[in-house]
Amino acid sequence: RYISLSTEWHALSQLPAMTKSGLMIRDIEQTTTVMHQFRSYLVDQMDFHALHFPQAAIELALTARRLSVNVLTANVWPSFWIRPLLYAHLTLPSGLQEIKKAFL
After folding, report:
1. Which end of the chain has less Cβ packing within 10 Å, N or C?
2. Cβ atoms of residues 20 and 77 within 8 Å
């Protein structure tokens, strides 16, 4: 189940000393913002700058819930979640690699 961020904030406001949880919710909000910026950037590049990316990469990037950008801060999220990321090797399809380089 998905709970809205406003519901999460309300639940956390009822509990004492939940600063780390609040920071985690803030990170989730940042993720939402970055994903929106990424999609807007991609559409802008295709519409106004005539950049062409593979159709499969575009569909993946623009279809909701198929791709998301995650903001992880090691000082907030538990280290046992961060540690596996040190050893993860994610290989993006070539079209998404091009998009990532342009966006960053």
Report:
1. N
2. no
